Every structure is written in structure tokens, then in C-alpha cells.
């Protein structure tokens, strides 16, 4: 069975995914009175599991909401040693290099994965392990922050497949990785 690794991230016009202190409040600066999911619900139907970094995991935990995922979550971390008791059946800590992590997760039967978190996305890109980018641009220039992209060992070509506009301001573009056959 074919596998697929999808990045689904919000970003500023200048390609930051968080403010310089990890701020995310700017992601909600455009009113969304119809509570559009902007592709999130569709993504959740497509994936089998989520891989995220410890910073993203801690950020989600800091939100004053119920655990938002109904899919298994694998948290990449060298520093975290435990998961909150109420999430032990939903969240797994995992360590290793990106390829071995994917192999272990795929061997558990999870083939379509949502890759989340700045460092995790950057490291997966460095290893050429991303098949699809779904990037949602919020019309703001942050000027500084946590960048979406980092230096790569080589260029990665993607093909644009679609762009959607939400709330007349938020632009989401989808790109598929073009691989040599």
C-alpha cells in the first residue's frame, strides 16, 4: 500500500508559522463567522495518524480545549518522558531518525500521515519525506518568527494542484512532490 506524508500548516505572507516567541494568535485574525474548517476536516478523513514535535504537542496541550484529535498521535521528542494519563491511549512518544520513525509507524498500519510542527516539517523536508504541502497563508507579515522553511541539502520540486480562498482573504495552496521516476 502506498504511503503519503502531508504537511498542513498556516503561515504568514513572509513564511513564518509562529511569532518569535511561538505566538499563534495571528492565525485567528481573520473573522470566520461560518466556522469553515478550511480543509482540516477533509485532511482528518484522509489520514491514519499524526506525527508532531514536542513543541506542537505542548502547544496543543496549552489550549483550553479537549484533546482535538481522534487519530493516533506520535510525538517526536528526546526530552519528553511521559504523556498525560488521559492521553496515554491516544499519544505515543517516539524517537529516532525520520526514516526509521516512518518505518515503525507504517509497520503499525498507519500509511497516510499528517506531519505537523516546525522542526519536524523541516527535518522531513531535509530527508525528502514530504509528499504533499497544504499551506494556508494568513494575510499578515510578521517580520520575525519561526520560519516554515530551513536550508535544504537540495531543491525539492513540487507541482501546484489547487488553490482555494477562504473568507475572501485566506489563501490555501496545495502542492504535490514531483519525484523522478
Keywords for this entry:
19% helix; alpha/beta; 10 strands; eight-stranded mixed β-sheet; 181 residues; globular; Dihydrofolate Reductase, subunit A
Q: What does this molecule look like?
A:
There is one protein chain. This protein has 181 residues and is an alpha/beta fold. It has one domain: Dihydrofolate Reductase, subunit A. The protein is built from four helices and ten strands; from the N terminus they run ββαβαββαβαββββ. It has helices at residues 40-46, 54-62, 98-107, 118-126; strands spanning 4-12, 16-18, 49-53, 73-76, 91-94, 112-116, 132-138, 146-147, 158-166, 170-177. The strands form two sheets. It has an eight-stranded mixed sheet, sandwiched between helices. The radius of gyration is 16 Å and the shape is globular. The chain starts with a strand and ends with a strand.
Please give the CATH architecture.
Answer: 3-Layer(aba) Sandwich
Major pleated sheet: 8 strands, mixed
Radius of gyration, taken over Cα atoms and rounded to an integer in Å: 16 Å
- Please report the distance between the alpha carbons of the first and last residues: 18 Å
Task: Detail the poorly predicted runs.
Answer: none
Could you tell me the mean pLDDT? 94
CATH class: Alpha Beta
For the secondary structure, the number of strands is 10
Which bin fits the share of residues in helices? 10-25%
Please report the number of helical segments. Answer: 4
Question: What is the name of the CATH superfamily?
Answer: Dihydrofolate Reductase, subunit A
Q: Could you name the CATH topology?
A: Dihydrofolate Reductase, subunit A
- Work out the count of structural domains: 1
Residue share in β-strands: 25-35%
